[in-house]
Amino acid sequence: MFGVLVVRYKDELGYLAAYSGQLQGCKELDYFVPNVFDYLQPDGYFKCHEAEISEINRQIASIETTPERIHLLDEIQQAQIDAVTEIDAYKEVMTQAKRQRDFSRQTGDDARTEDELIRESQFMKAELVRIKQKWRNIQKELDTSIAHYDKQIDELKGKRQQKSEALQTWLFQNFIVRNARGETRDLLDIFKYTPMGMPPSGSGECCAPKLLQYAFSHDMQPLCIAEFWWGESPKSVIRRHLNYYNACRGKCLPILTFMLEGMDVEQKEMHKDAGESISILYEDESIVVVYKPSGLLSVPGKSERHSVFSILSERGYTPKTVHRLDMDTSGILVVPRTTEAHHSLQRQFYNRTVKKRYVAIVEPMIGITLNEGDHGIIDIPICPDPFDRPRQMVDYDYGKRSITEWRVVSPQPSGLGSGEVVLSLVPHTGRTHQLRVHCASCDGLASPIKGDPLYGHRGERLCLHAEYLEFAHPVTGKRLHFKVEADF
Q1: Rounded Cα distance, 448 and 446, in Å
Q2: Which residue in 66, 51, 269, 263 sits closest to 152, CA to CA?
Q3: pLDDT tens for residues 315-367?
Q4: Where are the alpha helices (DSSP H) in 41-200?
Q5: What's this model's pTM, rounded to 2 decimal places?
């Protein structure tokens, strides 16, 4: 990420430039402002202690890859396989023997007495216990053999954690930022009262803190600031070349809140006020189905803006929530009015018997030509970006599976920009921002929804519309169908 800060110095206007983190492995470059705290001197405190941590990592890797330990791990794995094989095979023998005993009791075609049959059963049960105990003993011996390796690894990992935490504490204590009043605080103090309690890794290294620190330290008056992305998007976080982005909330918001104290800050309004316009499509004693315009919240947020929920409450309804649409998304919502209807609709959404369909305009797809009827499935896991909510990110380790079915409705609709495509989108899961991420991600369609301020390019509105909703009436069980055409 790159940033530019327009400043006034004495009677002259100028600008400062910065980049987040490091650029091409360099800690500082001419033309760009320096870091808030330069901790990467080759023989400095940070590098020396970082080298100690790297040496511990090397020792851990050396122990983990010791031929004796690898051989023991192979033995443990093979022992587990052999144990399951022998136990399952003997259980099958026991099953066949029981069938034979039952058959003998029914037909009398066996010279053995009932006592002998019972003793056979008892013997086989005892033999199964002995087999299991044998493998437990083998496993115990192998675990004992490998334990001293694991003990060394655990001790080194504990030492590494202590050194890493101490080094992080030192680093954040030395990241001292200045605000507009000339006051200074370190990052530990700034993040002390946040929900995280500690600064996330990389805090203070983004563009905005660097730019403001330099300006305040050189008696410059900040006038306006912008950050933009340059280059290809990372795999996990969606970024577009030359798009402007807000500072991240997790790392930068607490820092910037302090740094901007003492200044009159004007923030660009992110959304147009949609007013209080909702349309009632259907209502009875159990439910109300409404059309929500783009720009209106579904449920109350932190601000005092109106929402579908608050508008219905003011009109005398007692609404409950079972699903919602993003503020920028228009479309159909069903709102239960009773506890019974609420529970019924919750079950339907949980069991995925509610049918939803969206329509969206997506930006031109680079190097891809789509024809009407083309379709596919996007199946990529997503989760919240912990440092930049409400953004979501692709994460194959911790993300939740998210599935979207897409189909081309019109590849070249009249009245739209060249290369824009109208898609029908059916979400088979209900993750936050699922459709927006699946369209924009390079692992999905790599084509953001038109007007998407988070994952694409800001426009007059987000061209995403929930056009169809089908569910069973919570009282009568009759299937209800609602459709509202998009207004874009």
Answers
A1: 6
A2: 66
A3: 888 899 999 999 999 999 999 999 999 999 999 999 999 999 999 999 987 66
A4: 45-64, 67-107, 114-174, 187-191
A5: 0.63
